[in-house]
Amino acid sequence: MILLYTGLQAQEASSAPVETEPQSESEVQTLDVVTVVGKAEDIPRIAGSAALVTKEAIRNQDYSNPARVLQQVPGVYIREEDGFGNFPNISIRGADPGRSSKVTIMEDGIPMAPAPYSAPAAYYSPRIGRMSGVEVLKGSSQVRYGPHTTGGVVNYLSTPFTELGLEGNSAEDFYLKSSFGSFNTWKNHTYWGQTVQFDAGLLGYVLEFNHEHSDGFRTIQGSDGNTGYEVYEPMLKVFFEPDSSIRQRIEFRIGYTDFKGLETYVGLSERDFARDPYSRYAATQFDVMNSEQFRTSLTYIIEPTDALRFETSVYYNSFQRAWYKLQDVIVGVDTFDPSQAIGAGSGAAYDLINGNGAGSWRVRNNNREYNTVGIQTRMDWDFATGPLQHSLSLGARLHYDDEIRFQNDDLYTLDASGNIIGVTRGAPGSQDDRRSTTTALALYIEDSIQFGKLTVKPGLRYEHLWQDFDNFRSGAAGEGELTTWAPGIGAVYQATESISIFGSYYRGVSTPGPSGTISDGQKAEYADSFELGARYYTPKMQAELIGFYSKHKDLIVPDLVGASGATETTNAGDIEVYGLEAAIRYDPLAESATDWHLPMRAALTLTHAELTSDTPSTDEESIFSGGTAGNRVPYIPEYNITFGLGVEYKKLGVYLDATYTPETFGTASNTTSGLAPDGTPDGRFGTADAAFLVDLNVKYRVTDNVRLFAGVSNLLGEEYVASRLPYGPRAGAPRMWYGGVELKF
Description:
The protein is 4% helix and 53% strand. The chain has six helices and 40 strands. The strands form seven sheets. It has a 22-stranded antiparallel beta barrel. The chain has a five-stranded mixed sheet with strand order 1-6-7-4-5. Strands 2-3 form a two-stranded antiparallel sheet. It is globular and about 80 Å long.
């Protein structure tokens, strides 16, 4: 079965042999955990825009970079940092992309941001290379999900349990994908799953391991150190459905991610970027990010009747990270942050960051710990009132999270020849020692009311936050409360068997962290969002056209080193976003009895995102400082085009995917020069380059169980400024090749 993705839905093309996977026509029905979008065939009936990225769309190009996957979805933009996608900055429909803080990130419906309320800047993102799919909700997410929905929802789908056919009482799955490529980039993803039916009921498990390694494509001046990353991810999922008169299911999962990234915040000067975009300064040689994420959840599902269903999950996530990275350079009595040091492209600070002068490198150990624990429950009830069919959903969640900072600075002293002549270690906690906590109660009600061909879905979400913070160095402390409401209503009309029309209004919410609420009096960010669209679905063609409009009030943005994850935030004023999304997928041979298939897809997003008020921030380090009404929102392109073409013949498949993103402004001041508003040279100011990225992949199925593949990412070798944050221009990944094998049993 081929599952192809166009930004609309997945669709079967059963006659193509390239991706054939055995599947029973009839399978034992189990109580699966409810997902955000549901099945691909459910999308035309959703009263709002949604997309399902299938596992084939992820695997066809050996993708482990979420930018390459999610940018296939119209309305989704990603600002990259490291070229590998380890720190994605996701924007949906013009929301500020900084650390995906305006998007609710989940895995199988469980919150996955380290501390979504207390510190929403997400330094952890689920590894897309181990996923079986990704769901994106853009226009109907604000009622059921939170706390950050001014952007939308991204729900990663983990490896599913093995499906048990009606014949036999046991089924097993084994999968292994291994690839090797440029810069010693090695990826391995494997799992073993089994489902067994016995007298007591149905038992299943999945044991999974994901590993990624790369030496990195950048080189450090005066050092032979690597600039890549390494990830280890074991995971176990188990479920049990007892043989009882009432359908029930218990599901347990536990996972762990160990990540090491030899990554820096520091970019290059314009001159150095033009000379070698893949180099790094000597002062970044000690920069490294070490993190660990532990996640576990227990879910209980019960269906007393065919029309009534309850699902309850208890979850716990912990995330520890220490990003040891260059903070600034010191020349005499003057201190320069890296973007200022490289912005001028010359001078004592520039020489020092190159390791060619006397002074000191101050390296900060950004040591932080995050903890999240919660319980969420929902009831789904189908019933009728006269001619109206209802699908009522009620939900509640009690959630606690915290952020603990215990940081220090180390000082590396250099002589006039650039030699390190001394190191002064700061005491743990001497730079920052603070704690922020949030307890949140969230409630929602939503009813899907169907009358003939029309379905209307009104809903309301309520959240109340209890927040507190303690700064143990300064003695500052406080506590406070915050309440938000998010109403919404959507409708979809099934005009014909293949055409549906939908529209919606929803209010998105993004809440500030405890310090922002209590100390600075920050307000919650609200986004009133409207959309109107139409879908067309036939076996050969699926198309979607959507117009959208959003009005953001009291935009919350980081006030220091723009969207780099700093805890200092501010309300940056109001923005207005409107645009158009179009997507189409077409296979002219989808229904023909031929060995050939030509799957094609294309998607276009037009976005106008501008400030409708002057930015109140006066901090020169904020990328929103100097923004005036009418200026464009940083890092939101005016349009984005993505397309894909596949040629499949018997056991052979060739796939070409491409994305074009135009130039974007790096700051709200919309300057094209590398100067801050006060005229100081600063590498954060200017533009990010336009980029046309093409990926090619070739697959050949040796047997029903063995497939070989090879490919090239960034086929044209584009060299471009992907981001100017946090500290100056950094390039996207260069051309990289890979090859590997995929086994399925």
